Structure formats: structure tokens, C-alpha cells
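R.M. (postdoc): so does anyone remember the format we settled on? I'll just put the C-alpha cells first.
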């Protein structure tokens, strides 16, 4: 691609925000009750022939791609028109209300064979540049200001209805400071200028890393529940308030946490907090304990802290998410909580050796371990039908009703 944009070049413009779409148009018109019934302009997330625009002077119709025409670069402050290559209509705005964002003006494509009117004229403003500098491919960040009304070409994540093919809305924003008004030239085709290596445009590793994560965060936040879909909130997950139902023809499957493990994890998590508090008080007061017990306490708290941190990092961020959430999102945090439970159980079994005779301590240790394993195995057998499939017969419903410990469980 050429280093700079010139008049007559075929370009694709991309909104500068992370995950921004390409400036796009197609033959379809806005519906009759949506502003002026002119050609739709949208933002589209994928590369497409309908993303291509020709940069033209605001007051000339000369063939700028001709070999006889001298090359003239597009400069900061220039007045231009953008002609949609496929439909040969110009990017246009007027004082009609935008389809969704009613505070903004509608943006359309207007004219025939590249000839429109004064509402097709836009002024280029490169961000951070006061002097007459050319528009650089990829690297220049600029605004397109509508010359007659003073608003800025704007894109955001709001989707148009089905008549707009659920593509993103393009408007003309009176607020010139909005960061969604920024654009850059993504593709630039102009045979009269030499191409430069793509290495020139290549971002650094850190830039790629930050952008990829920003795109993932943005994509996640945009996920919304489908109509009739059952979702859940993060506070419901640790207490196993409700599961997730999977319907079937003959067998019904209900995704539910093993309540013995789920609620046991919660209890042992509270025990960790109590132990942490007790050990902190003992340390502050300078009470002496045996070196072996002190070493056991320190190992337990250190291991438990890192597992608690893993649980918190995999669970608490969901409270800040606006995207659709499901019960299974808690499973990674559950693994850390279960490992934390194992550490606390191990501590409780070992601590008896410091206060009781070995024979009695071993007996209690075996009782705790045996009771824990028995509860886990029994609860697995008891609730296994939820995972392996429940028949829809009346007898099956009667047998599963006895394991419906909470009314919020919907099987």
C-alpha cells in the first residue's frame, strides 16, 4: 500500500476504536419512516467490496487516476468527497435524525454517478496536527467533519434492526470530542504511488497483545441472552441456587453442582477466614506455639491464600460483566475453591496430632477422611441421574422429587 493517501485513491476507512467497523454502504435504502429514504451507510466488521471509497476533491469531477493528472496528496484541513465505489454515490449527511441515536444526524449515500450536492462535502482534521500534513495510511487518526452542519462522522456498537442487516449504526455526531469520531485509512490502493512494505505498519508485540485483549473484552461484553434463554447471576453460583436445564427427547439433563461439594466448599472457605483471623490475633499478641504447629499454620495459610486468590480472580470479575452469564462460568473458580477445601481438611486432620494422643488423633483423622469420602460418593450416586439423564416418565419424576432440596432447582 502507498504510504500516504492521494486524491483518486480507493480506500477503506475503519473506526479507530477497538473493534471498530469499516465505513460501509450498499444498494439498500433506509425505510420510509427512517429519515430520508436514501442509501444506507453502516459500519461493517468484515472486509468487503462495499467498504471501498474513492477520495475526490470537493469541487472537481476530473479523473484523478489518469496518468496525465499529477498526484496530489490529501492533506490535513482539506475539503473532500467520498464516493462509494460500488454504487457511485457520495457520503452524505443532512439535518435528518439518525435511525437509533436520535441526538445525531442521519448519514446516507446520495447522488448519481458521483454527482451529489453540497451536503457531500467533509473536512479532514488529523488529531494532534495543526499543520498541513498528509493523511498516512493506518497511522493517521482523523475526524471527518461535515462541512455544512459541523458534525463529525461517528460509529459505535449500536446495531441497526434487520432492515439494516444488524450492522452497526453510522451517524453524524454534533459532539466533536467523542472518541468514536476517530477514523483511519485501513486500505489504500493507488497505482501512481509506490507501495511500502507491510512491516512499516506492523504494530509491536505489546500493541498487538493489548489490542487482542481489548477486542476479546469488547466481544464478551456484547454477548446478550437469546429470547427465552435461562441465565444466572454470579451471586447464585457458589450457593448452588439453580442449575442449567438441557432438554432432550427421552432423557433430560440438568446441570447442577454437587450440593455436598458446593456447600462444603463454602463452609471450608469460611473456616479459612476464621483461621486467618485467629492466626493473625495470636501473632499480634505474641502467644507462643510449638515450632511444628507454627510451621503447619504458616504452610496452611500460605497455600490457602494463593488458592483463595485464584478463586477470587476467577469469580469476582463476573460481577462487573454486563454480558450474558451462565452457571458453568463458575467452574474454574470452583476448582480453586475445592483445592482450598482440601488444604483446610488436611490442616484439620493434622492439627489433632498436636493436642491429642497419636492413637486418638489417627482415629479422628480416619473418621474425618472417611466421612468426607463417603459424603462425596453418596452425593454423587444420589444426584447422578441429573448428569446421566432423567426419563420423562411419572415414576422418574417421583424419584427425582426426593433430591430436589431447593425449590429453585427446576428439574
Amino acid at each position: 500500500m502507498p504510504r500516504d493517501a492521494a486524491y483518486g485513491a480507493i480506500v477503506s476507512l475503519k473506526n479507530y476504536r477497538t473493534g471498530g467497523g469499516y465505513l460501509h454502504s450498499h444498494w439498500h435504502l433506509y425505510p420510509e419512516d427512517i429519515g430520508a429514504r436514501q442509501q444506507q451507510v453502516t459500519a461493517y466488521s468484515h472486509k468487503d467490496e462495499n467498504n471501498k471509497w474513492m477520495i475526490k476533491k470537493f469541487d472537481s469531477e476530473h479523473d484523478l487516476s489518469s496518468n496525465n493528472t499529477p498526484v496530489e496528496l490529501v492533506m490535513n484541513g482539506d475539503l473532500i468527497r467520498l464516493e462509494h465505489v460500488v454504487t457511485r454515490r457520495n457520503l452524505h449527511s443532512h439535518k435528518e435524525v439518525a435511525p437509533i441515536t436520535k441526538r445525531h444526524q442521519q448519514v446516507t449515500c446520495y447522488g448519481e454517478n458521483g454527482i451529489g450536492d453540497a451536503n457531500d462535502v467533509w473536512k479532514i482534521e488529523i488529531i494532534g496536527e495543526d499543520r498541513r500534513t498528509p493523511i498516512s495510511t493506518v497511522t493517521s487518526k482523523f475526524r471527518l467533519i461535515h462541512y455544512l452542519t459541523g458534525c463529525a462522522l461517528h460509529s459505535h456498537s449500536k446495531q441497526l434492526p434487520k432492515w439494516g442487516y444488524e450492522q452497526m449504526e453510522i451517524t453524524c455526531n454534533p459532539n466533536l470530542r467523542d472518541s468514536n469520531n476517530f477514523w483511519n485509512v485501513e486500505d489504500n490502493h493507488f497505482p501512481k504511488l509506490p507501495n511500502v512494505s507491510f512491516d512499516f505498519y506492523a504494530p509491536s508485540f505489546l500493541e498487538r497483545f493489548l489490542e487482542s485483549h481489548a477486542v476479546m473484552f469488547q466481544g464478551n461484553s456484547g454477548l446478550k441472552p437469546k429470547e427465552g434463554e435461562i441465565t444466572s447471576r454470579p451471586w447464585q453460583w457458589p450457593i448452588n441456587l439453580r442449575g442449567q436445564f438441557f432438554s432432550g427427547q427421552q432423557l433430560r439433563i440438568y446441570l447442577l453442582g454437587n450440593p455436598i461439594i458446593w456447600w462444603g466448599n463454602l463452609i471450608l472457605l469460611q473456616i479459612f477466614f476464621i483461621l486467618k483471623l485467629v492466626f493473625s490475633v495470636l501473632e499480634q499478641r505474641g502467644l507462643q506455639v510449638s515450632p511444628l504447629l507454627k510451621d503447619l499454620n504458616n504452610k496452611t495459610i500460605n497455600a490457602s491464600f494463593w488458592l483463595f486468590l485464584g478463586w477470587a480472580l476467577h469469580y469476582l470479575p463476573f460481577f462487573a460483566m454486563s454480558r450474558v452469564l451462565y452457571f458453568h462460568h463458575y467452574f474454574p473458580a470452583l476448582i480453586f475453591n475445592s483445592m482450598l477445601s482440601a488444604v483446610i481438611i488436611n490442616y484439620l486432620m493434622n492439627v489433632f496430632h498436636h493436642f491429642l494422643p497419636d492413637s486418638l488423633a489417627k482415629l479422628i483423622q480416619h473418621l474425618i477422611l472417611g466421612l468426607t469420602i463417603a459424603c462425596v460418593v453418596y452425593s454423587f450416586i444420589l444426584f447422578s441421574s441429573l448428569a446421566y439423564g432423567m426419563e420423562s416418565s411419572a415414576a422418574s419424576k417421583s424419584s427425582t422429587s426426593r433430591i430436589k432440596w431447593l425449590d429453585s432447582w427446576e428439574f
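R.M.: ...and that's the designed sequence above, right after the C-alpha cells. Also worth knowing: Residues 358-388 form the longest helix (31 residues). The chain is about 30% helix and 20% strand.
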